[in-house]
Amino acid sequence: MVGVGMGLRNVSSHCSISEMDDDDLLKLLDKPTLKIERQRSFDERSLSELSIGLSRGLDHYESAYSPGRSGFSTPASSARNSFEPHPMVAEAWESLRRSLVYFRGQPVGTLAAVDHGSEEVLNYDQVFVRDFVPSALAFLMNGEPDIVKNFLLKTLQLQGWEKRIDRFKLGEGVMPASFKVLHDPERKTDSIIADFGESAIGRVAPVDSGFWWIILLRAYTKSTGDLSLSETPECQRGMRLILSLCLSEGFDTFPTLLCADGCSMIDRRMGIYGYPIDIQALFFMALRSALAMLKPDAEGKECIERIVKRLHALSFHLRSYFWLDFQQLNDIYRYKTEEYSHTAVNKFNVIPDSISDWVFDFMPMRGGYFVGNVSPARMDFRWFALGNCIAILSSIATPDQASAIMDLFEERWEELVGEMPLKIVYPAVEGHEWRIVTGCDPKNTRWSYHNGGSWPVLLWLLTAACIKTGRPQIARKAIDLAEARLLKDGWPEYYDGTLGKLVGKQARKYQTWSIAGYLVAKMMLEDPSHLGMISLEEDKQMKPILKRSSSWTC
Fold first, then answer.
1. Beta-bridge partner residues of 503
2. Across the chain, how many H-helices and E-strands are there?
């Protein structure tokens, strides 16, 4: 989260926006949810099958994972359990509902934080796209999909706004980082202001917002069985616009997405410019999610074909060049440099002397992970939580690689989890490197905030990855740690220190995604079938032939 001034554009909610104005939006909100019996999952279809049979149409989705419920009553997850729920669960739901934001009487999102003890509000009183995802999943798992549908439609409407930073116009498909609902009690009207990066620190557009929107649209569809929303012309166009920003041809020689620093959850300068794993993993998952929802009509067919080609290249690239285990580390350590030919082994000309000493100590004989960044003559060996968890959920990681990532959690529990799950990045940069990488950022000091801080929101991603890989005991251990501190500490945004013992020095209390992340983790562990809305199975057609050994065999 970043602090900004209130220099956001204020556009009345009564004006026409793009192809869909508020009247159109209300009509969509009023549409009844359709319950559809679904046959074979589109997710299970191979890419080769899609590329051959695009004209055959889409198969139906799998059966819904969560039963539909209405209203804001007792959590459905508690009612399904034969045991007494943890007392934190009721407190968490109460806090989550206090964060709800309403537009014209309809819930459209949750505030980033409801910290009444903080003097500065900054932008924590807004609805952030990335922050709302765990809240949305919690409501879906509890059988309350309406707020998620409202959020998807409202942000889709905001996508149609003209977006400018100074004299430069942003791409049409850019989704907002956040929006704020303004209530006028005298006129009895609501209006919205949105931030597309023009008010953020560094003025960076949120690359991840569009990906999260697509992923959440699929989660809504999988959970409810309501195909009518994703099949609307507005949602179909919204997906195409987002992906057109990423699939356009240019000077790229890699299938990965080139990004600026601060374009994702790590929204301050932290040396992630280039091809950060967090963005690449979300990009991959958004591509696969969109592939499951786009119609193979005149407009969608071309987009589908481009997605299929990109997915093949992207999966091979990430699995081959971003993956690191002990054997690959040893190979890089022995690399020759300045190779010039198609037969070069060191394809990115990584200098072995650039490997930091901590990597050799950190890498166990059993385990592995996707490194933070790979670009010419640069390999960022830092471990990033979101990218590796999403790699498992989206099946970028092969089953062997997914197992190795979980092995790493077990082997390096103190470093990655400590006393509060979960390190956003490991290790922290400090000293001269901190000055160069962060620009002397006073908020990202060592083992704090984005620089090695521990973020409770990541608990839901860890739990989902644990369930998918058959390691629920890891998730239970992490949840136990969170339950010992989170409520007592007031649901902080993040924790500081090498083990995550200290409440973050600038952490907001009652941070909504810390609350929602805990609820989602608990509900998934209690009912693992919820995993289906946020997980994709491996596509055998994308599996590359890896020349290096996999650490799981060690």
1. 495
2. 20, 14
pLDDT at position 14 over 60: no
pLDDT band with cut points at 50, 70 and 90 for residue 31? low
Q: Which of 21-25, 191-195, 458-462 has the lowest mean pLDDT?
A: 21-25
Burial class (CB in 10 A: 0-12, 13-18, 19+), 526: middle
Encoding tokens for residue 451?
A: 């620089």
Q: Is 172 exposed, middle or buried (0-12, 13-18, 19+ CB in 10 A)?
A: middle
Closest CA to 374 of 385, 365, 364, 384: 384
**Residue 460 and residue 386 in contact, taking contact as beta carbons nearer than 8 Å:** no
Give the H or E element holding residue 181: strand 178-184
User: What 3-state class would DSSP assign to 333?
Assistant: helix
- Residue 416 exposed, middle or buried by CB count within 10 Å (0-12, 13-18, 19+): buried
Q: Are 420 and 454 in contact (CB under 8 A)?
A: yes
CA distance 293 to 230: 7
Contact residues for 157 (Cβ-Cβ < 8 A; gap 6+): 17, 18, 20, 22, 25
Could you tell me the two tokens for 243? 């992906």
SS3 276: coil
**Tokens 């793009």 belong to residue:** 18
What pTM was estimated for this model as a whole?
0.85
pLDDT at 212 over 70: yes
pLDDT of residue 538: 85
Residue among 298, 311, 402 nearest 43 (CA):
311
Residue 223 to residues 96, 110, 143, 335, Cα–Cα distance (Å): 20, 20, 8, 48
* Entry field: residues in the chain: 554
Alpha helices in 412-511 (DSSP H): 413-416, 431-438, 459-468, 472-485
Cβ neighbourhood burial of 121 (10 Å; 0-12, 13-18, 19+): middle
* Mean local confidence (pLDDT), 213-232: 97
Task: Tell me if 142 sits within 8 A of 77, measured CB to CB.
Answer: yes
Is the pLDDT score of 27 beyond 70? no
What span, in angstroms and rounded, lies between the C-alpha atoms of 205 and 163?
Answer: 10
Cα–Cα distance list, 238 to 5, 306, 534 (Å):
29, 16, 20
Identify the bridge partners of residue 325 per DSSP, sorted by sequence position. 368
